[in-house]
Design brief:
TIM Barrel, 8-stranded parallel barrel, alpha/beta, globular
Length: 283
């Protein structure tokens, strides 16, 4: 079964002007009507680091989760953030960004890779205690711009360490949009065969014209979990090309349906969510 993860948090977090809490909640409530498997709705991180997400707890209070079709995921960057997120029974998943690149790990979470792995282990224990699941995003999973070591074998080493911690979901992340279709297929194929107990997701960034081929490449490698953001909003500021952003969900859907997948989405609600993006992101 294909799982679609809609990521308004990733789309919103880089916007300089603060999006009103009520507007965030109204947008996410609309997304909850569409039928996505999961909505990555917010993060419990330092408000100095990501000021746009400082109201995540307040947004959560405004969400209409009665008969919601989607699960909720929140990003955390340390144990304190995880503890904050675990206060809310409505949250199903905690997402943690672990990087293959030492430079990016330091920039993103102000910690070393070794420290980050220890944090993953602590969060995993907390999640098990609270009945939650942790999703680890393997950032710079297809290469990095810093000259740090990278190879598919290095990715496999990270996955093995996460498997030892009993992580069940790993999202391979093309943080700066450098992955070729060939590498995407190779990574998903090799990792899913080596670690069948792990669900591997695709959090890819791309220029608009490259989305479909990257989605199909991941599918070919066995990927059944895809992250996207309507209209392709958001992305990594480290990407050298300003056109590189999140996979546009509407293009992702078109590519998957073109391969014959029935995604069980409410298309009328999806159209309403598409209309709202202009108001939310370009007021």
């Amino acid at each position: 079964m294909i799982k679609l993860i809609e990521c308004p948090r990733d789309a919103m977090q880089g916007i300089s002007g603060f999006i009103d809490t009520a507007i965030k909640a109204a947008y996410i409530n609309q997304l909850l009507e569409v039928g996505f498997h999961t909505v990555d709705f917010g993060s419990f991180v330092s408000p100095k680091a990501v000021p746009q997400m400082r109201d995540t707890a307040e947004v959560l209070e405004l969400l209409d989760l009665h008969d919601a079709k989607s699960k909720l995921l929140a990003i955390v960057a340390n144990v304190r953030g995880a503890e904050d997120a675990l206060h809310f029974p409505e949250i199903d998943y905690l997402g943690f960004p672990l990087s293959v690149s030492e430079t990016f790990q330091q920039r993103n979470t102000h910690a070393s890779i070794q420290d980050a792995l220890e944090t993953v282990e602590t969060i995993q224990n907390l999640c098990e205690t609270k009945g939650k699941k942790q999703v680890v995003y393997l950032s710079m999973g297809f290469g990095n711009p810093y000259g740090d070591p990278y190879s598919p074998e290095l990715v496999a080493e990270f996955v093995e360490k996460l498997a030892e911690l009993e992580i069940e979901t790993i999202s391979l992340s093309d943080t700066i949009g450098v992955a070729s279709p060939e590498l995407i297929t190779q990574l998903f194929e090799v990792q899913s065969q080596a670690f069948p107990q792990i669900e591997f997701g695709a959090h890819l960034h791309s220029r608009p014209e490259g989305i479909s081929e990257k989605v199909l490449a991941a599918l070919k490698g066995g990927c059944q979990r895809f992250d996207g953001a309507l209209n392709g909003y958001g992305g990594c500021p480290m990407a050298k090309d300003e056109l590189v952003g999140n996979l546009a969900t509407e293009v992702l859907i078109e590519a998957l349906e073109g391969e014959g997948y029935d995604l069980n989405l409410e298309k009328t609600e999806l159209a309403e969510a598409m209309k709202l993006t202009g108001f939310v992101f370009n007021p």
